[in-house]
Automatic annotation (TrEMBL):
UniProt binding sites for Mg(2+): E9, D105
UniProt-listed NCBIfam families: PRK07726.1, topB
Family: Belongs to the type IA topoisomerase family.
Key words of the record: DNA-binding, Isomerase, Magnesium, Metal-binding, Topoisomerase
Reactions this protein catalyses: ATP-independent breakage of single-stranded DNA, followed by passage and rejoining
Protein name: DNA topoisomerase 3
Gene that encodes it: topB
Lineage start: Bacteria, Bacillati, Bacillota, Bacilli, Bacillales
């Protein structure tokens, strides 16, 4: 009997699908049933081959060998996941497998994961596509009832291929050219370099900012109104050219005549649901989570806990086919601290805001919302709870009515000077009921009633002094916002056309890649964090002057992203796009080769290399510090320190391991130092003195038996428990 092979992206998803499709028979890297075989990747099992796969000379980095433009690009199996690739390949090529169901993540990158595996395994069997946004049992069953023809997604695969190959040509060549030319590790890419440039430009804005002093003139009127002097443009800040003290002197002890009273109601509808970028920004602002941390947490809530839908979405709307599923999703949120909100929604018979359902604004995936699965908070980490609560809070808010305000403008005249009082009063909480509100958003407290023509005495008058402030340095939240809308960072003449392109393409990068881009810049020491703010390093600033000019601007990557969308839609072919990419690569490499600029290391030590005599560089990595020779062709490396999992006995933080051989010591930032031999002896003693879980359980069972034998003891223990 022929079977269908289901290919999932990760083991956890594969096992969820296998459970639903009755695949119980355990294999090595797969599960099998009567009709289906389920196997899985570990993300990418296959990638684009390294340059040396084309020509042996590419193994050595040389300027004269650039640009490298092999065509077509080859695929290679990733070494560390090679065993699973062989398992998947064996299952794909089984004689009893008649067709393949692609069940990788429903998006551009998920399509690439599966198609590259099929291509490398030389599988030509018919394919179908499972396209789901959550991995609950219900969603999986429904997805298999609506399997789509796999070839329908060929253009999505072409776009994914084009993106990957373009990044290979540009990134591989530009990085090698810069690194060899300047004898420094300089990573360059079509999204990361413009992102780095935006951080630098913000720093330049702050550096060149000239603060301007200003004054504000205010009067407090007899009925409690607080009014500000306004110029013709409605600004209440007085800069040079207007004598604030003169205004103040002239209005003292005068009457203010009310010239206009304007009241209007304002409705603030429920906020849109989260897409990935918006929740990354919110989590960074509220909790200080990095974009990468938030994405990883969402992925766990989606894959492991199954309480949220697919996270890599760029939409903040829902498709109309989800309307019937909303009551069950709301039911899953009926847990503390949201039970009272869910009860109110049911009592008031509120429905989700219809404006949030818009098929035209949903592309591959709808907005991030809860699934029909109720959360088990005891199984969640603190970070997972916080992110889950953010999504549920926004989801529940969408059932509540709009918040309502009363906006009041009262204009008065004191002699020839115009004063204005502007107030905004919250009159109906609406959806704001489930959010913490700022002090100026409390209900009630209407302004004093005044009529036009009324004369009011001035109780108090005065001035406030201030100074204009520079823009803030980027945080991850504000940088993500700039990546979505980088229009102001474009300097090209055709700025309007490029801005339009940026808007339609969703900015630079994609929702799925922006977190990785920021992380890569941090890991490559192009930017660094100071508190919550991001700053460029000397290495990053130098890269911006050494990289080709077009690669520094957001315009180029926005144009490319737009073309990738056109490939995805089937409007242009991958080959024409890659022809353009190759030409750009040739031009970029040529400009790097001809550059007269030089690179200056900012991490030079006073220690000479024992091999070639050049001064060593101190390099910080994820897991510690190393000294490396600044001459790449020398290759000398010596570890200085390594961050370990060993905990300090005083402050419990992770310690660094320094030194070599018998002289190795653990060092903690709190000042604690300990020889490795001493540490090992201490750990040995602790293990001997610490009861194992097995011992603890054994002891507890013996106590239960003792209670049974000794009623007096049981009674005493019961009293103690009662006091707790």
């Amino acid at each position: 009997m022929n079977k269908s092979l289901i290919l999932a992206e990760k083991p956890s998803v594969g096992k969820d699908i296998a459970k639903v499709m009755n695949c119980r028979k355990q294999g090595n890297g797969f599960l099998e049933g009567d009709k289906y075989i389920v196997t899985w990747a570990f993300g990418h099992l296959v990638t684009l081959a390294e340059p040396e796969a084309y020509e042996a000379r590419y193994k050595t980095w040389r300027l004269e060998d650039l640009p490298m433009l092999p065509s077509p690009l080859k695929l290679s199996v990733i070494n560390k996941t090679g065993k699973q690739f062989r398992t998947v390949k064996a299952q794909l090529n089984r004689k009893d497998v008649s067709d393949v169901v692609i069940a990788t993540d429903a998006g551009r990158e998920g399509e690439l994961v599966a198609r590259w595996i099929l291509e490398k395994a030389k599988v030509k069997k018919p394919i179908k596509r499972l396209w789901i946004s959550s991995v609950t049992d219900q969603a999986i069953r429904k997805g298999f009832q609506q399997l789509q023809e796999g070839r329908r997604f060929d253009s999505l695969y072409e776009a994914a291929q084009a993106r990957s190959e373009a990044d290979w040509y540009v990134g591989m060549n530009a990085t090698r050219a810069l690194t060899v030319k300047h004898n420094a590790s300089l990573s360059c890419g079509r999204v990361q370099t413009p992102t780095l440039a935006m951080v630098h430009e913000r720093e330049e804005e702050i550096k060149s900012f000239q603060p301007a002093s200003y004054k504000k003139v205010f009067v407090t009127l007899g009925n409690g109104l607080h009014a500000w002097y306004q110029d013709k443009r409605g600004n209440n800040r007085i800069f040079s050219g207007v004598d604030a003290d003169k205004i103040l002197e002239n209005v003292k002890s005068e009457k203010a005549v009310v010239t206009k009273v304007k009241r209007k109601k304002k409705v603030e509808p429920t906020p849109l649901l989260y897409d990935l970028t918006e929740i990354q920004r919110e989590a960074n602002n509220k909790f200080g989570f990095s974009a990468k941390e938030t994405l990883n947490t969402l992925q766990k809530l989606y894959e492991n806990h199954k309480v949220l839908t697919y996270p890599r979405t760029d939409s903040r709307y829902l498709s109309s086919d989800l309307i019937d599923t909303i009551p069950e999703r709301l039911k899953s949120c009926d847990v503390k601290p949201f039970s009272k909100n869910v009860l109110k929604i049911k009592k008031e018979k509120w429905s989700m805001a219809r404006t949030l359902f818009n098929d035209q604004k949903v592309s591959d995936h709808h907005a991030l919302i809860p699934t029909e699965v109720a959360p088990v908070f005891s199984n969640m980490s603190d970070r997972e709870k916080k992110i889950y609560n953010l999504v549920v809070q926004r989801f529940i808010a969408s059932f509540y009515p709009a918040a309502e305000y009363e906006i009041t403008d009262i204009e008065t005249k004191v002699k020839e000077y115009d004063f204005v009082c502007k107030e905004k009063q919250l009159t109906k909480l609406g959806w704001k009921e489930i959010y913490e509100r700022s002090p100026n958003e409390k209900l009630g407290g209407a302004l004093p009633q005044v009529e036009e023509g009324a004369a009011l005495s001035i109780k108090q008058s005065g001035t406030e002094h201030g100074e204009t402030q520079p823009p803030s340095s980027f945080t991850e939240a504000s940088l993500l916002a700039a990546m979505v809308n980088p229009e102001r960072f474009i300097k090209e003449k055709n700025k309007k056309d490029l801005a339009k392109t940026l808007k339609s393409s969703g900015g630079i990068g994609t929702v799925a890649t922006r977190a990785d881009i920021i992380e890569k810049l941090l890991n490559h020491s192009m930017i660094e964090k100071k508190g919550k703010y991001l700053h460029t390093t000397l290495k990053g600033r130098q890269l911006l002057t050494l990289a080709p000019e077009e690669l520094v601007s957001p315009a180029l990557t926005a144009e490319w992203e737009q073309k990738l969308l056109e490939i995805e839609r089937g409007n242009i072919h991958k080959a024409s796009f890659l022809k353009e990419i190759k030409q750009y690569t040739q031009d970029a490499v040529q400009s790097i080769k001809q550059s007269k600029q030089s690179f200056k290391h900012d991490n030079v030590t006073g220690t000479p290399c024992p091999h070639c005599g050049k001064l060593l560089l101190e390099v910080k990595g994820k897991n510690g510090k190393r000294k490396v020779c600044q001459d790449r062709s020398c290759g000398y490396i010596k570890n200085i320190s390594k961050t370990t999992n060993a905990r300090c006995p005083q402050c419990k933080k992770r310690m660094e391991l320094r030194g070599e051989g018998e002289g190795q010591i653990f060092v903690c930032r709190c000042g604690h130092k300990e020889k490795v031999t001493t540490f090992n002896e201490r750990r040995k003693r602790e293990k001997q003195n610490k009861a194992s879980k097995r011992d603890v359980n054994k002891y507890l069972k013996s106590q239960d038996k003792e209670e049974m034998k000794n009623p007096a003891l049981a009674e005493a223990l019961a009293k103690l428990k009662g006091k707790d």
